[in-house]
Amino acid sequence: MLDIRSRIAAAAATGFLVTRPLGAQVPQQPPVVIPPVEIVATRIPEAPHEVPASIEVISGADLRARGARSLSDALSLAAGVAIAPGGDAGPASAVPEFWGLREFDAFLLVVDGVPWGGALNPAISTLSLRDVERIEVLRGPAPVTYGATSFVGVIHVVHSTPADRAAYAEIHGGSYGTGGGGVDLGLPAVGAWTSRLSADFDRFGFRDDNTSITRGHGLLRTDRAFATGRLWLTSDLNILRQDPASPHPRVGTELTSAVPLDANHNPAGAYINDNKIAVAAGFDRNIFSNAAWGTTASFAFTTNDQFRGFLTAVSNTPDNASGYKETIDIHDFYADTHIIWPAISQLRLMAGADALLAGGEARGATFTYTAPLSGVQRASVTEPTNLDLDAGNDRRFLGAYSSAEWRPLNRFSLSGGLRLNSTAESRGEGAEVTHTRLSGSVGTILGLFERDADHVRLFANYKNTFKPAAFDFSLAENEGVLDPETSQSYEGGLKVRALEGRLDFEASAFHMDFSNLVTATIVNNLPALINSGKTRFKGVDLATDYRLPFATLARATYSFHDGKYVDFVQDLDGVPTQLGGHRIQMSARHLASAGLTYAPENGLTAYTTLNYTGDRFLDEENSALAKPFTTFDAGIGFRGDRYELRIDGRNLTNRRDAVAESEFGDAQYYRMPARTIQTGVAVKY
């Protein structure tokens, strides 16, 4: 019995997994075999249409065909997902939206099987999309195998295996001083060990000259196969330097014209600096009765230094801005061990246990300063040296889980999972708070029609989820632990494959009742978090792919999302206000996308992508309605046997709409980055 990673590699070798690098053979006619395997939902390689959940897989070949360098580029055609670039964590970060909930911590980010950010928040800023084999996107709560981590979605980024011998080098440049380069290559084997290295250096510029990203990154993967399994090791180093942008204030129902577009109100020399090192190791092996035993352990250490500020008054008056300097040290540890038994009497079982441990300590100081509204000249502020404020958090999430899948008929399966969560958390000098509770899921899928590669299948699932409240190391919060977030969700839908496997269609509807959702507030001019009572999310997601001849893929998606407060009283301008019945701010009811990609083995390549975002309220009171907008990306290139030339345009419509709300200032919003053009050349050697 092959281990899981070997089965994935075998699937790729037989064409079940589309992982074609630059210059590899690309079939002119779409395959009629199973699409890319996924493991995020079950830890077992299965096609998305075999799983009773909304899941899709984006191949590395597709990412390269579209020149995707960021999470927003990569998921621009994902159903029911909207990625706002930037945000409070800096221009290298992003704020994803699943199921109408746009919160930085509401989803789970997994990189090569390890939660990226651990028991705290997803570490999007340090995510690398170099040398990616595939990205798996699961809509809905995280499976029981990943514990108390997510309510609305999982993004799993899987890099190429050490056994991949392909080697590439590329350089690129573009608008606003953007440029960089990188290499991906298989290293010479050392005995039975095979290794692969990715390294890159990039600078990204923006229309605001005072906003930029500079990043150096290296990823080393190595493994060793033996008779009954394999050992593997990875190490990831990320050095990130960001010059932050400023959110744009709203006055009344509109983004104010008193502040110019791209004005930067940070103090001169503002920065967000991250250094992260992460190491992981594990093994997969066959044990008694041909069962598969897998174990993973990882450790990451991150330092984050910030010096920044934001407006507190939209006027050219003294001390109209507030800032802070903060240093944060975070360590997180993850371990998982599980056993998957082979199917016996159509019943397949899995059992395991995991641990997520994290701790962090922040020290900082605050200050006020005067920032010209024009942002033309930034204020000179001396960095505080007496860091007299602190914020600390220690978390311990332990769990034991089991799952089962029963398939009495080829057309029918019933699956379920159960997890026992034991969590402990303390903040600052406050007392430790513990919780012990069950969570679980049940799902079923039924084939109404099956013929060769084509099928029509119905699926449904129910999930009960629990998650301790988020913590963001704000200097305004230290003592006391917020109530844990809980949810119950129901989802059902249809999965169709037709025209000998060339056409895929998926439709799903969901309903989620949410309690104690964590939202942002302002305390003493600093961001803080509070629980928000009860909320409700429901909607419909539709997606279709059509694999046309001549290496052409067409895709379209549409989503209707309706997120509302059910019972939540918040202090607004000193007045307790019941928000029940109001739409969740920044959540668009209508999302749509369409794309066409032409990516043959050699010759001309091209792609286009359209993304539509419907109207959404900018505020909880639902008084400020933002208009819909559409963005357009396109690229063209040329492929030779050993090289590729390309040019890519992002946000060619140059829409600058508000896409993410800031937690740093009341009624302030990050806008879509301006239009950019990038060119690049890649060489295979």
List the topology elements.
Layout: H1 4-14, E1 54-59, H2 60-65, H3 71-74, E2 81-85, E3 94-98, E4 101-102, E5 108-111, E6 114-115, E7 132-139, E8 153-159, E9 168-174, E10 178-190, E11 193-205, E12 212-226, E13 229-243, E14 248-251, E15 254-255, E16 271-287, E17 291-311, E18 321-340, E19 347-369, E20 389-409, E21 412-427, E22 433-451, E23 454-467, E24 485-498, E25 503-515, E26 518-523, E27 526-531, E28 534-548, E29 552-567, E30 569-572, E31 575-578, E32 590-598, E33 603-613, E34 616-617, E35 625-626, E36 629-639, E37 643-650, E38 658-661, E39 668-671, E40 676-684
Parallel strand pairs: 5-8
Antiparallel strand pairs: 1-7, 2-3, 3-4, 5-6, 7-8, 9-10, 9-40, 10-11, 11-12, 12-13, 13-16, 14-15, 14-39, 16-17, 17-18, 18-19, 19-20, 20-21, 21-22, 22-23, 23-24, 24-25, 25-28, 26-27, 28-29, 29-32, 30-31, 32-33, 33-36, 34-35, 36-37, 37-40, 38-39
